[in-house]
Amino acid sequence: MSAITKDLMLRGFATLHTPDQIEEWNARFGPWLREGRNVFLHTVVEGGTGQLPAACAALLDCTYSSTMLVRMS
Question: What's the CA gap between 70 and 5, in Å, rounded?
Answer without folding.
Answer: 23
